[in-house]
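Mods, move this if it's the wrong board.
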Amino acid sequence: MSLSSAMVLPLLIVVAAGVYYIYNEVMQFMSKSLVRNKVVVITDAVSGVGTECAHLFHKGGARLILCGTSWDKLESLYDSLTNGADPRETFAPKLVIVDFSDMPSMEEVVAEVVECYGCVDVLICNSSMKLKAPVQSVSLEVDRNIMDINYFGPSTLAKGVLPTMISRRSGHIVLVNSIQGRLAVPFRSSYAASKHAAQAFFDCLRAEVEEYGIVVSTISHTFINASEPPPVEEAGPKPNSLSAFIAKQMTHGVRPSVLADEILQTVNRKRTEVMLAHPIPRVALYLRSLIPSFLFAVLGAGVKDSVLAEQMQ
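Not the wrong board. Structure tokens:
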């Protein structure tokens, strides 16, 4: 009797694990089948995340429009997708040069994107330009370039594909943003400002196009970690503050493959807002809303610590 009772818990754990595995496999299969024949635009297909997305959506049978600033890289991605692919199950992608830093070209870009298939079902805006620098060292030209790439470019392209989505009363626009679109940290003024602007624009857009059956999603992540795990650091003097701990947590990034899978799941499940972040950044977001003075003090102390650490080196 006691032996049978002792075996119940391990057996339940095994059964639960099996059910969870089967559920995940079924959801993965359904996710790929749901994008079949959909026209999907990826604005920066040659980035780590964009490439992972291209492979996922291509395997799912989507009609891809791959965008990027380098024709050679786009052709290389095209070859990697089509080599060995079954033409009965997949579609050869279409390639379009898109450079958000060249805003005067956007009217032609929008026309070319729409003309590929006559419509767009899913627009994935994942282009981004990062910058870490003190405010006083960033020129107005750099500020404008970051705003073009991170805000004006995606918003202009979204406006460009809206008419076809509205006329068909369906469509999905996904903004791959950053947690810094909701939480600003020191030395990221231009980047955070552009991400805040993009977040606000797509939040407004979501409410305005809901009546047409169009879904607008934002995915906020902390950091895209495409590099190998860093080596273990040797022990040494380091700034000892809560701000330093928060900053370290903010750099715990998400792998491109994980983010791409989340984008696919967001499209299929029509989620409107997704957060990919560790607990500490999430807590910081709550502090920003509930006790902003405390968060500002912590961030300010972190800047002082960083300056002190530089002076000691």
